Amino acid sequence: MKNNKQKKSNFFLPSPPWQTPDMNSGCGGDEGDSSALNNIIESGSVTVRKGEHLIHCLTIIGQIEGHYILPAQNKTTKYEHVIPQLVAIEESDEVDGLIMILNTVGGDIEAGLAIAELVSGMTTPTVSLVLGGGHSIGVPLAVSTDKSFITPSATMTIHPVRMNGLVLGVPQTLSYFEQMQERIVRFVSDNSEINPDRFREMMLATGELVMDVGTVLSGEAAVNEGLIDSLGGLSDALDCLYEMINERSNETENNTPKG
Prior knowledge:
This protein is of the alpha/beta class.
């Protein structure tokens, strides 16, 4: 269980590109709409309010960019944009929940794991929704939230760790690959219902992918394997998030001393 710690008071999301104002609030007409639109363009995120709940939507799309800048034609999610958002959401009294929407081909392993570890350590209620694909390092990201959803048409690709560029042909390189692979296996098995041996088996499967090693899971198969919690779409994920927020609010009220 995650610790239900008290958040700091009077804490607000930082200024752009991380601040994502409430699109439904009266924040100056066209100026407010323009600010929200700029945040979507800059960081792929937006904060919206429904009733009394303020929800932050974070998108993980394209390739996850890590320590090296990818070519301009690549669709990327920059981890230096995502990490400050997550810290701000966790510390904010205003944001009640986080929905993370994924359609990614993977990318930098360490950057992806860093984001996944931050999400899994949040006390703010979180859900993920896989649309299109949650491939490679997108798998740990998908399972890092409190509840995970996947649409029936989406797929998840599980494969071993790879590396681009210069690779030294020494035993230490293979050992490093194995250690990094085990980090992924351990994180995924700890944050989902899948057995680690079964995950390794799918990671190293032959005959599933053309000229490659690994396994492609449909949405239904990902749920049956215990990798993802439920089949569903946006409304299902949001309903689950609202339910978790309400449960947390009730627990907080019950635990508050009364004078």
